[in-house]
Design goal:
mainly alpha
Length: 132
């Protein structure tokens, strides 16, 4: 219909019509707000937990300690994997990882309980109200 009226493509007609431009500018804030609301409803930790994408939600007050300990464990794990792989070049990374995790579980939790592989420090609870 627009093409027939203007003799050009619909996109060109929309770009050149001042009334349409004004209406788009008028509606843009409402559409942006709806888009943000939609994204917020789908990207919350609780929603991701419900969908099974997360193992749990780390409470805000414990986040720094939790992730610092997790980083320390992962760095230690990588160092051990490299060491195992350097002793026998026929061992794949996956095999070395399995060996390290097996040793950790046999040792009763690994280097430290907080560093234990498969540790479930994450709790399924809401972040605190003090979260930014």
């Amino acid at each position: 219909e627009l093409k027939a009226q203007h003799g050009a493509s619909a996109d060109d007609a929309i770009k050149s019509d001042p009334a349409i431009k004004a209406r788009v500018q008028q509606l843009l804030p409402a559409y942006q707000q709806m888009a943000l609301r939609f994204a917020d409803m789908h990207d919350t930790p609780q929603r991701m937990l419900a969908k099974g994408v997360l193992q749990g939600v780390v409470p805000w007050r414990e986040a720094r300690r939790f992730f610092a300990m997790r980083l320390k464990r992962r760095l230690t794990e990588e160092g051990l994997i490299r060491h195992v792989a350097s002793t026998d070049v026929s061992i794949s990374r996956r095999q070395a990882l399995t060996m390290v995790r097996t040793w950790s579980s046999m040792a009763g939790g690994g280097l430290h309980d907080e560093l234990a592989w498969g540790s479930r420090d994450i709790r399924s609870e809401e972040p605190s109200a003090s979260a930014p």
